[in-house]
Structure formats: structure tokens, C-alpha cells
């Protein structure tokens, strides 16, 4: 079976973890700080604050921007549930804007009509490793005085006009095992704003600046040095992994027949967290089953858009977002991870072509 995702961990990660275990200091410490510095440098920002997951990174970023009850945050309905749920955690309301069917990302030209007096932030999601069209988003945010919180959980190293994601607004990344690099579980916030980074650190650590003096409500959303040690070893490999993903995607796009290759708009670096094709409506199950029988792992990211989830229906969401709904009905992701061999890639191509041509 060719898996849909596979973390690549080697001797470097094992050694790094052993060193932490032998040091006897397992919680947040010098490795977390070194990982933050390495990741900030990679994204081209001044500060990074590591957290326990991508979800807690989003949660902390929203809190640090002062988003709370009565506020609205504009985001995409076609994403992992954590994007929108983080908005619920702070008591605010996610407002969904439909996606561009070509990129699967939020449509910037629809943002303005979703802005109200309660809008506090925009949360674009760089889905599948492709950067959102950031210029119009930053322009609208500037004009209305809105925070931009980038959900970059699938887009480590993705670029828009030569700049890495996470460097436009406040970036949030995940290091879950299926992501472009992993720490086991983990997340990080990136920013150029010193005050914001400081707020994030305080929220991550029980609202504590001076030991056991608590000025505000905070959480324990810390990363451990064990996880950061894995992350530091993975950082050394991130560009190799990304280049392998890009090269695997190129092979698939050049050789697949009868399916449209994922689009990569000009001036973007797509880091292919997922390689996602569309198979119209009733044929998707046939292709999914056929690939499974042929030993090829596939997945549907995501079968239900956020506004159609039961949780959101129960909260009274009852809107139609046709492109997100069509995408949910049609998408299918193929393996593209750096663990694929040439044989694996050939098998994927032959199987998809058999089923789709
Ligand atoms: C993975 C992911 C998250 C959440 O990250 P965790 O580390 O699993 O909490 C949030 N948003 C998107 C788009 C993701 O893919």
C-alpha cells in the first residue's frame, strides 16, 4: 500500500530526542527557543512562538489580536475544521466566503461584501500548500483596519511573489505528522510584531510574565523540548522535502490523463502538502475504490465544507457556498509526499489513468 502521507524520520531525529532525554529537561527550554529562531529565519520574520499544535497556534494568535465575543472573522469554508473552530474558541463568529474553484482558496474579491462593523480579522488558509492571493487580502485588511491571521498549517515554505507565507500577517503553522515537517504534535506563530510575539508567549504560558504572577487568563499551550528537538532535525530537511513534493507533483501533472492537474498561478511556490484532483460527482467513489484496490492510498480533503458540518448547522448556519460544496463533492488527493519512489509514482499514474481516462 502506498500511503497518502508518511512522516520521514531518521537517525538525526532519534539522536536529537535522545539528547533531550539524557539532559533530563523535557519541557519548554532551549530547544524550543532554537526551533523558534530557526523557523522565524526560514519564514523571513523576526519572531516565532512555538505552541502545542496548529490549533493552539490559531487560538493564541486570535487572542493576541484581541478577537473575542461579538467579533467576526472572515475565513474559508473549505478547510480543516480547526481554522473556523479556533474562532469559536475565542467566542467570535466565523463568516464564510466562498472559494475560487481553480485554487481551492478563498476569493479575495468577495471579501469586502462580507465585512461588517463587527469584522475584526481575516483568516486566509493556504490550502494544500498553495499560497492565497495575498495582495488583495492585505489591501482590504489595511483599508478596514483588520488583522490578518494566515492559517499556514499546510504551507511551510509556500511563497507568494517571492515572499514566504507566514510573513504577510500573523502566521500559524502545524507540525502534525502528515504536514510538510513534523514534531509529532506542535505548532508555531510567526510575526514581525514584537508586542504581538510577547502577547503570544504570555498567553501560551498561563498569562505569566513574572513567575507565578498572572495578569491575564492564559493557557498551557507550550511545546516541549522533545518535540522541538524533532522539529530542529526536520527543519534541516524541509527544503529537500518541499523540493521532492514539487518534483513528484510535476511528474504527476505531466503524466496523468483525463484529470485536470492542480493549478499553480503565476508568482507562487506551491509546496504540495496535497496533490488534489477533481473527479466529478458520482465517479469519485469508483475512482477512490479502484485506487484502494490497486494499493494506492487516497483521501478526500474535505468531504463536508465547514458551514455544512453538523456543529455549524446546529449553530444556525444555513448558507449556500456553491464552489466549496462542489469542491467537497469532487476532490480526491493522491500521494505526493517525499517518501514516494519512482515506482510508486509510476503506479499512481498508471492506476489513475486506467480509472479516469
Ligand atoms: C492541520 C491543520 C490545522 C490544525 O493543526 P493541528 O496541529 O492538527 O492542530 C489547522 N488548519 C489547517 C488548514 C490544517 O491543515
In short:
With about 350 residues, the chain is an alpha/beta fold. About 40% of the residues lie in helices and about 15% in strands.
Can you give a write-up of this model?
This protein is of the alpha/beta class. The chain has two domains: 11-235, 3-Layer(aba) Sandwich (Aspartate Aminotransferase, domain 2); 238-356, Aspartate Aminotransferase, domain 1. It has helices at 11-23, 30-43, 54-64, 82-89, 134-144, 194-204, 225-235, 238-255, 284-293, 310-314, 322-330, 342-356, and strands at residues 47-51, 72-75, 93-96, 119-123, 147-151, 159-160, 163-164, 170-174, 187-191, 268-269, 275-278, 331-334. The protein has a seven-stranded mixed beta sheet, sandwiched between helices. The protein starts with 10 loop residues before the first helix and ends with a helix. The structure holds pyridoxal-5'-phosphate. Pyridoxal-5'-phosphate binds next to helix 3 and helix 4.
List keywords for this structure.
357 residues; alpha/beta; Aspartate Aminotransferase, domain 2; Aspartate Aminotransferase, domain 1; 2 domains; seven-stranded mixed beta sheet; three-stranded antiparallel beta sheet; 12 strands; globular; binds pyridoxal-5'-phosphate
What portion of residues is helical?
Answer: 25-40%
User: What is the residue-averaged pLDDT?
Assistant: 97
Q: How do the strands line up in the largest sheet?
A: 1-9-8-5-4-2-3
Q: Work out the strand percent.
A: 5-15%
Spatial shape:
globular
Amino acid at each position: 500500500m502506498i500511503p497518502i502521507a508518511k512522516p520521514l524520520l531518521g537517525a538525526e531525529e532519534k539522536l536529537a530526542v535522545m539528547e533531550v532525554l539524557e539532559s533530563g529537561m523535557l519541557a519548554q527550554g532551549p530547544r524550543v527557543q532554537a526551533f523558534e529562531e530557526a523557523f522565524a529565519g526560514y519564514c523571513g520574520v523576526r519572531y516565532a512562538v512555538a505552541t502545542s499544535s496548529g490549533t493552539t497556534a490559531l487560538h493564541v494568535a486570535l487572542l493576541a489580536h484581541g478577537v473575542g465575543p461579538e467579533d467576526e472573522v472572515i475565513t474559508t469554508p473549505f478547510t480543516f475544521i480547526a481554522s473556523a473552530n479556533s474562532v469559536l474558541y475565542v467566542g467570535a463568529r466565523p463568516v464564510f466566503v466562498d472559494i475560487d474553484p481553480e485554487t481551492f482558496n478563498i476569493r479575495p474579491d468577495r471579501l469586502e461584501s462580507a465585512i461588517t462593523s463587527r469584522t475584526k480579522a481575516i483568516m486566509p488558509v493556504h490550502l494544500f500548500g498553495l499560497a492565497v492571493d495575498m495582495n488583495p487580502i492585505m489591501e482590504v485588511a489595511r483599508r478596514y483596519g483588520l488583522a490578518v491571521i494566515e492559517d499556514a498549517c499546510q504551507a511551510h515554505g509556500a511563497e507568494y511573489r517571492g515572499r514566504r507565507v507566514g510573513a504577510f500577517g500573523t502566521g500559524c503553522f502545524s507540525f502534525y505528522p502528515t504536514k510538510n515537517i513534523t514534531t509529532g504534535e506542535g505548532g508555531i506563530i510567526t510575526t514581525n510584531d514584537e508586542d504581538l510575539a510577547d502577547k503570544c508567549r504570555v498567553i501560551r504560558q498561563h498569562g505569566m510574565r513574572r513567575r507565578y504572577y498572572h495578569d491575564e487568563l492564559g493557557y498551557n499551550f507550550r511545546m516541549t523540548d522533545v518535540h522541538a528537538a524533532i522539529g530542529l532535525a526536520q527543519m534541516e530537511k524541509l527544503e529537500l522535502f518541499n523540493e521532492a513534493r514539487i518534483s513528484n507533483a510535476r511528474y504527476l501533472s505531466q503524466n496523468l490523463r483525463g484529470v485536470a492537474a492542480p493549478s499553480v498561478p503565476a508568482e507562487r511556490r506551491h509546496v504540495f502538502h496535497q496533490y488534489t484532483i477533481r473527479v466529478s460527482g458520482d465517479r469519485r467513489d469508483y475512482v477512490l475504490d479502484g485506487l484502494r484496490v490497486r494499493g494506492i492510498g487516497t483521501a478526500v480533503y474535505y468531504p463536508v465544507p465547514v458551514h455544512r458540518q453538523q456543529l455549524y448547522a446546529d449553530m444556525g448556519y444555513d448558507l449556500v457556498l456553491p464552489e466549496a460544496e462542489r469542491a467537497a463533492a469532487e476532490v480526491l488527493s493522491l500521494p505526493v509526499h517525499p517518501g514516494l519512489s519512482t515506482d510508486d509514482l509510476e503506479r499512481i499514474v498508471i492506476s489513475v489513468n486506467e480509472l479516469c481516462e
